[in-house]
Amino acid sequence: MDNRYLLALFLILLVLGFEVQGAHLPQQDEATSSTLLSQVQDSFSGYWDKAKSAAHALYQKTYLPTVDEKIRDMYNVSTATVSTYLGILTDQVLSLLKGDP
């Protein structure tokens, strides 16, 4: 399941990279790139809405209080872990930018 998150992160970074590269295009090409970007955003939005509705339907179909409690616990643990590692990463970036040895 970690590979899926890595793939999703890679695709998001790839799209953002193309967006940054597209900023250097001449003025006449900006209109076509913005329509492409809006099409990609609409596509991602559509996929996100479909995935969200499918997940909600699956959740409603298999609702169990114990599973709900486990999901809440997993969410709390994962958000605490992410915030910890995000704090570490922020400290590392700030110290790198600041130039502290």
Describe the structure in your own words.
89% of the residues lie in helices and 0% in strands. With 101 residues, the chain is mainly α. The two termini are 37 Å apart.
- Number of DSSP strand runs: 0
The pLDDT mean sits at 79
**Residues in β-strands, percent:** under 5%
Please count the helical segments. Answer: 3
Gross morphology is flat
Distance between the termini: 37 Å
Helix content: over 70%
- Indicate the radius of gyration in whole angstroms: 20 Å
Whole-number total of structural domains: 1
What structural class results from the helix and strand content? mainly alpha
- Main sheet attributes: strand count, strand direction, barrel closure: none
Uncertain segments are: none
Q: Would you list the SSEs in sequence order as H and E?
A: HHH
Question: What brief labels describe this structure?
Answer:
single chain, 101 residues, mainly alpha, 0% strand, flat
Topology record:
Elements: H1 2-22, H2 27-61, H3 65-98
Produce a short descriptive summary:
Keywords: Chylomicron, Glycoprotein, HDL, LDL, Lipid degradation, Lipid metabolism, Lipid transport, Lipoprotein, Secreted, Sialic acid, Signal, Transport, VLDL. By secondary structure, this protein is mostly helical. The chain has helices at 2-22, 27-61, 65-98.
